[in-house]
Amino acid sequence: MIPVPLVRRLLRMKVKVSRNRLLQIAALVLLLAGIFAFLFMYFENVGFYTAFYWAVITMATIGYGDITPQTEAGRAVAMVAAVAGISTFTALVSILAEYFISSSLRRMMGMHSVRYSGHYVIIGRGSSIPSCVGELMSAISSGEIEMRPIVVVFPDESERKKVELPEEVEVLIGDPTNPETLERAHVREASYVILALEDDSKSVFTTLMVKRMSKAKVFVEALRGESMELLKGAGADRVILSRSLAGRLLASSVFEPEVVDVIDDLTTAAGGYDISVLKRRDLWGIPYVEAMKRLHDEGYFLLGYYKEKPVLSPALDEEIPEGSKLIVIKPGSSSGKR
């Protein structure tokens, strides 16, 4: 009696083959090659491997001539095999060409899928996207974060045309509120998802879907202060109120423009200096002033530490708490220092 799991597996295979023209033609080629091989083996009295080799070479119309039929029946099989081979191999090649052309067109249009794991996914529109990609790539180059693929999802082709992204960045086109788009970006296996949709209602909906599909950390750009609680409630791990920050910087430009220049430099890894965090177990438990001296010798300037919240410029004799991260200023990629 045939086991039930085997029957189910065979039925699933039958369904897949019935839906895939490429598999159908390939199966037909193998079936015909097997039939012609058995007939040739029977009429010409040769081994199966030799007969199968002859059948494939004849059906492909290569015809090396190293094996030829010696009987009338064998010659009849050869003629039928040649005609059948022309038909089936032509169909197989045309389907393969159609598949590759279709795949190339889908990639050009951003309608393809990716199968990365642990990658960064950036979804959105506007000037935030190239800035975000540039910062991630600078951090990857400097070793601050792991080297992982970056996938950018634009809502439409017009947004894609507005920005120039490095060739190594995978670009997809699709509605971020559509689960199919998130599936194509393989959000399920992503490590981080960044949303900059310039529409807080879409950001809330997309955050809910991403969190339902994936365990990735989700960072979201919000435009309105009242949206922050909604986004956090939807599962966002961090929400950045971009326009509020931009407004404060614009106001500071009036009376302290130098501070704005410093902030702009410190918030990009490509600037002269970069603000960063270090996890240094060897500095836990020692006075802040001693940690400052050691880090200064290594090219860092210690600002404070982070443990649940940032603590800047603590008392010089205060010990660095265990488990904390150190907030430092370090030379950026354009400073010429290392």
Give a verbal description of the structure.
The chain is of the alpha/beta class. The protein has helices spanning 4-19, 21-44, 48-59, 72-108, 128-142, 157-162, 179-184, 200-213, 227-234, 242-255, 257-266, 288-297; strands spanning 120-124, 150-154, 170-173, 192-196, 217-222, 238-241, 273-278, 301-307, 309-312, 325-331. The strands form 2 sheets. It has a 6-stranded parallel β-sheet with strand order 3-2-1-4-5-6, sandwiched between helices. Strands 7-10-8-9 form a 4-stranded antiparallel β-sheet, with helices on one face. The model has no long low-confidence stretch (mean pLDDT 86).
Layout of strands and helices, then pairs:
Elements: H1 4-19, H2 21-44, H3 48-59, H4 72-108, E1 120-124, H5 128-142, E2 150-154, H6 157-162, E3 170-173, H7 179-184, E4 192-196, H8 200-213, E5 217-222, H9 227-234, E6 238-241, H10 242-255, H11 257-266, E7 273-278, H12 288-297, E8 301-307, E9 309-312, E10 325-331
Parallel strand pairs: 1-2, 1-4, 2-3, 4-5, 5-6
Antiparallel strand pairs: 7-10, 8-9, 8-10
Helix pairs in contact: 1-2, 2-3, 2-4, 3-4, 8-9, 10-11
